[in-house]
Amino acid sequence: MLSNAERKKQRMQSADFDKLSLRSYNLIIGLVILYGFVLNAIMVATLSDFFMSLDYRILLIGYFVLVIAGTLLTRSRKPSVSFIGYNLVVVPIGALLSTAVPWYRTSDIIAAIVATGAVVTVMIAISTMYPRVFSKLGIALFVMLVVGLIAELIAMFFGYGGDLFNWLFVLLFSLYIGYDWFKAQSYPRTLDNAVDSALDIYLDVINIFIRLLSIFSRDD
Q1: 29-49 pLDDT, tens per residue?
Q2: Are 18 and 190 in contact (CB under 8 A)?
Q3: Cα separation of 18 and 15, whole Å?
Q4: For position 1, what pLDDT does the model report?
Q5: What is the Cα–Cα distance from 25 to 130, expressed in whole angstroms?
Q6: What are the residues whose beta carbons fall under 8 Å from the beta carbon of 48, sequence distance 6 or more?
Q7: How far is CA 117 from CA 158, 201, 206, 220, in A?
Q8: pTM of the predicted model over 0.70
Q9: How far apart are the first and last CA of the chain?
Q10: 83: closest CA among 94, 93, 70?
Q11: What does the DSSP 8-state code read for residue 19?
Q12: What is the mean pLDDT of residues 74-79?
């Protein structure tokens, strides 16, 4: 398994003939992310009953197996293999969403989608205009993520059920969008790097959507 440093080094290696124009590169990132969301939406709309009928242990085991396999495949330098890996991450996330999203009101789902879209647009714009702001955030964001998850687990153990952690993680993953967009623009503009970068941003966006959905549902 490649370390993050090795993965970054691998992404930076590219032949000139593989490079895309900036517009094409960013368009592919956007289309791959959009594909993931559309696939998730279709799964939620058509397969919710099926996934809800499964034993949750089978669902969780399948989730972790597919996500780990997908993450490993995205480390390939072949865009076709990376795209298969992307799907192996998107599908199990769609399965989990299919067991959760139908329990929320349609108005809350729409509000979370709109708010998530606004956050993504703003953070990509800020990252594009001020890339240096995000260039050194990698380690800090990772530490904040680990500490936040541990703190949330401890708080849940003591019965805390408020939205403080939801808001904190919305902020954290918003910063992650800016950071991952900065990284995407730093890599050689290849089809494989576009797919890999799309996965990073897709995961950020999904986390924001889930947290905002939880927040909005409490305001009813």
Answers
A1: 999 999 999 999 999 999 999
A2: yes
A3: 6
A4: 46
A5: 20
A6: 98, 99, 101, 102
A7: 33, 12, 11, 21
A8: yes
A9: 45
A10: 70
A11: P
A12: 90
Residues contacting 152, CB < 8 A, separation 6+: 165, 169
Buried b (16+ CB within 10 A) or exposed e, 183-209: bbbebbbbbbbbbbbbbbbbbbbbbbb
The amino acid present at 164, given as its one-letter code, is L
Cα–Cα distance for residue pair 91/42, rounded to 1 Å: 11
**Taking Cα atoms as reference points, which of 68, 107, 106, 105 lies closest to residue 89?**
68
Distance of alpha carbon 193 from alpha carbon 201, whole angstroms: 12
CB 201 within 8 Å of CB 146: no
Question: Could you give the CA distance from residue 134 to residue 145 in angstroms, rounded to a whole number?
Answer: 16
CA–CA separation, 149 vs 154, rounded Å? 9
Question: For residue range 104-151, what is the model confidence (pLDDT) as tens digits?
Answer: 999 999 999 999 999 999 999 999 999 999 998 999 999 999 999 999
Q: Could you tell me if 79 and 192 are in contact, meaning their C-beta atoms sit under 8 angstroms apart?
A: yes
- Separation of alpha carbons 36 and 209, rounded Å: 14
E strand residue ranges, the chain: none
Query: How many whole angstroms separate alpha carbon 191 and alpha carbon 197?
Result: 10
Instruction: Give the span between the Cα atoms of 190 and 195, in whole angstroms.
Output: 9
pLDDT number for residue 220: 54
Q: For residues 183 and 155, is the Cβ–Cβ distance under 8 A? A: no
Answer yes or no: are the C-beta atoms of 177 and 125 closer than 8 Å. no
